[in-house]
Amino acid sequence: MQINFAIMGRRQAKILIPAVLSFVLFSGCNFRRMESLPKNILVTAVISDPRTFNPILANETSSTDVLDPIFAGLTRLNLFTFKVEPGLAESWTVSSDRKVITMKLRKHVHFSDGEPFSADDVLFTFKVIYSPDVLSSYRDLFTINGKQVKVEKLDNHTVRFILPVPFYPFLESLSIPVLPEHVLQRPLLGNVFEKTWNIVTAPDHIVGLGPYTMTDYVPSQYIIFKANPYYYEKDGEGVQLPYIEKRAMLIVQNQDAQYVKFISGETDIYSPRPQEVSMLESMSKKRGFIVKNIGLDTGILFVSFNRNPRHYIKDGKIDPRYKWFTNINFLKAVAHSIDKQGIINDVYRGYGEPAVSFIPRSVPVYHLNMTDYAYNLDEARALLKKAGFHWNNGMLYDSSGNRVEFDFFTNSGNEQRERIAAIITSDLAKLGMKVNYKPLDFNTIVEKLTTNFNWDCMLIALTGGYEPHNGANVLLSNGMLHLWDPREHTPATKWEAEIDRLMMRGAEEYNREKRALYYKKVQKILHDELPLIPVVRQYDFVAYTDKLENYRPTVFGNYRPEMMRLKQ
């Protein structure tokens, strides 16, 4: 999972693994198409400036959107059949006990700097993932029952993975970026890996195996890519991929500007807001673009309260907010105070539905139907009273006489999310809560959630996908994106311990119907304990130039972006 999703900016070229933080937005700058630019260039827009150029450290789509075209994995997921396909690995065999996977790597493959790719690079990638000096969410995906996967080199183009137990998601998870040992070994040994490939690194120093290389990065303006001349894939006729020679990603911080840039022909792909869909459809033929409804978003927009004792318990004193945010009746009261249908009607123009389960109904095999917390302020007040809260002059107090007041964050610049946050703030105020609404830029939000943990309440989103275990870095108690209390040494609650157990059992089970039972139990626990209070899921639309061919957007991502063409 990731934190919200986008098409070419909201849900980039593939299902990101693992979950990353994101927000749905694109932005504007002074970059324009010019006659000096080649005609064969695809211009899109991204959420904001990246926070890192290191794919192993990226936890948010502002970074992963930029890095996806530069790197490649051993496998990839077909977003239509949901079968795992060869990537850098051309074939593999699985032992009868499903604990040993032997992979044959493609030969004559080179990194973007011309250096050869080999089994050593695969071993090095896992060495980085498991390094105690590197804080990476990928470790959550590849830690199975508390144990690491053993990776062996059989020869330069053969690797063997030995799993502690059968692990169903393993092949799909091998779509992670493969790193160049010859570039990054010294920083890892020197304990400076986390400072390597940061955003001040020269773009041409970022070395990968993907279809593109980065050539230019101007903060708050744009990023330019060119086709990787060493990219390993060719089409059926032997033509070198990618077809599109250059790509530009604009960094735009206002949705209105993003819309204008698309309809004026400055960008080629845009994820429209609901209020823009009908207008775009009416002008599409004249302006030369296509508007498509690709389905219900797989991600989830939610409200979450910080339960991190490191933030609220200091010098033996417990901040009263910690007691509120861990009180299940307080959380249920908040859930009953969110007018989801009102949000859908007002913000999404009807293009959405209430989010109830952590796994969307677009993944029917794993989705669990549950009764939602209906919008009911009277029920919310009854639950607060049951939890020991009381009112004085319309203001809410806890049993110790503390006024209920907290900060509420979401990312600024996203009109939809800001409007939703304002609606929720208003309804919580009706319950007597003093909510200090504070929109912040996206990267500051990410820092609060992943680094300094200085927050009370957050409206944010997680990206979704087909495989439930891809959310392990959120759902496991020791996960990097276990937002409400990250990287717990031991599960803080019995229900978190139970989720840990169910996630591992689900990952070990190869029968799809049986493994679905484990993930449905996880959804039920999340629904009952409310570490994340789901809000809505919207229908995803995409608008794109009719000159773009082989563009195959889905709610899970854009399949095989290296195959896209631009008609001249």
Describe it.
By secondary structure, the protein is an alpha+beta fold. The chain has 3 domains: about 20-75 and about 190-295 and about 540-565, Periplasmic binding protein-like II (D-Maltodextrin-Binding Protein, domain 2, 3-Layer(aba) Sandwich), CATH 3.40.190; about 75-185, Dipeptide-binding Protein, Domain 1 (Dipeptide-binding Protein, domain 1, Alpha-Beta Complex); about 300-540, Dipeptide-binding Protein, domain 3. It has 17 helices and 30 strands. The strands form 10 sheets. Strands 1, 16, 22, 23, 24 and 25 form a 6-stranded mixed sheet that branches. Strands 2-13-12-11 form a 4-stranded mixed sheet, with helices on one face. Strand 5 and strand 6 form a beta hairpin. Helix 16 runs antiparallel to helix 17. About 50% of the residues are buried. The model is unreliable at about 1-15 and about 20-35 (pLDDT under 50).
N-C termini distance: 37 Å
What Rg is obtained from the alpha carbons, in whole angstroms? 23 Å
CATH topology descriptor of the largest domain: Dipeptide-binding Protein, domain 3
| Average residue-wise pLDDT | 91
Content-based structural category: alpha+beta
In total, the number of strands is 30
How is the biggest beta sheet arranged?
6 strands, mixed
Q: Portion of residues in helices? A: 25-40%
